Amino acid sequence: MMNLADSAPVTNNLLGSEADSQRTLYPYVTGTSVIGIKYKDGILFAADMGGSYGSTLRYKSVERLKSVGKHSVIGASGEISDFQEIMRYLDELILYDNMWDDGNSVGPKEVHNYLTRVMYNRRNKFNPLWNSLVLGGIKNGQKYLGTVSMIGVNYVDDHVATGFGNHLARPILRDEWHENLTYEEGVKLLEKCMRVLLYRDRSAVNKLQIAKITDEGFTLSEPYSLKTFWDFNAFKNPTLGAEGSW
Amino acid sequence: MSRFEESAPAKGGFSFDLCKRNEMLVQKGLKPSSYLKTGTTIVGLVFQDGVILGADTRATEGPIVADKNCEKIHYMAPNIYCCGAGTAADTEAVTDMVSSQLKLHRFHTGRESRVVTALTLLKSHLFSYQGHVSAALVLGGVDVTGPHLHTIYPHGSTDTLPFATMGSGSLAAMAIFESKYREGLTRDEGVKLVAEAISSGIFNDLGSGSNVDVCVITKGKREYLRNYMLPNPRTYVSQKGYSFSKKTEVLMTKITPLRELVEVIEGGDAMEE
After folding, report:
1. Distances in Å between the alpha carbon of A191 and those of A120, A245, B42?
2. What's the stated role of this polypeptide (chain A) (predicted)?
């Protein structure tokens, strides 16, 4: 006698409350913004190392920037467990590519397209991977920088960001980014943006990493923190001339 | 047996009866009427000798630009100006009201108005309306106690800051301020930074646009620089111009003077008591 409880899981993922326990409804452990820019020799990414559990800062050493194959870097914001799942998919993709052993290697454009398909198809099944991804790399001198969101929106640009980075960092990048930034200029620009995010994004932490990808390969900096300034006169004496107010 | 029980509020304060009725209507499917919002970028900063206020000039009604060149920097007193974001009618009305109250107060005290006076009048009004008066303000001015800059939120809370931004474009403008502001800026540096922050809002936020207004307030002097920058000019203007063909023929021209006015003679009969 067929035991119905063990038979194939509910295929219709659109309705049904039992199916709900198998779909993503909201994120739990999240990472905040990632910023990426093209520079002279390749791509630079910056992301902080915080993993928030709602309004608690639960994890302070989460690496949200990872290399993908020889030519690409991925940065993720949103649900950390979904990012780990995406890394498993990507590791499998790279493995199969290496197994061909044909001298070709998966480049950033291919990875970006793959991720777009994955994210969009999950969205269509109402079971998204709750992430906003930044994907960049350089292959044969050709620089590539793109982004994919949890609903499958994807595009390429000279500078990209996720989450709050879109509101706070993109305006600065639109003003100050230009072709052929040197490595030092690029890092300085990223730090400028990360500092504003640190001041104004409540989920940001002062511990960040910079990732670089060039034709030579991938490097991930050691975690470090930014200098901040809190000595404005108005902060020291905000009620000057108005004792009793706040 | 009174049918007029719900008419007036008990003792001052806001009557929330209509709010309940409005919520009920919305639940039944009534679309609330659209109001003119300013979708906006407004900023203020304190510099060496005083304060500088800045604002964009776009007023939106949903997705439509209702006014391409409106004025968001409102006069409060000769030494105090206020930028307003949120519902245009609310910002206009509340700043006008407090401006009048300040004038009467100046007559009463014989002294120059203080920024904290305007601040207290605005915040107590907004608080008593529990956020229903949708006005988010950047208030700045220079008085005897020095330069002051404050932000006021629709629910009535205030902050005292060296630099401030409000409105939908506030994040774009704040990104500029947080990366470039420092204390002791000169007038020209301050104006340049304010214009940069407003431009960031104009070009990166869809709710803000058109031109940049700036107002510089120092001890004893204020410069209202309307349309300080026009970064969105009309790019194509037809060289040919327009010609309007004559539709109606003129048959006859005749000028008829009105009747002579009646002469009023001074010192008629005395008024009756």
Report:
1. 32, 36, 26
2. Non-catalytic component of the proteasome.
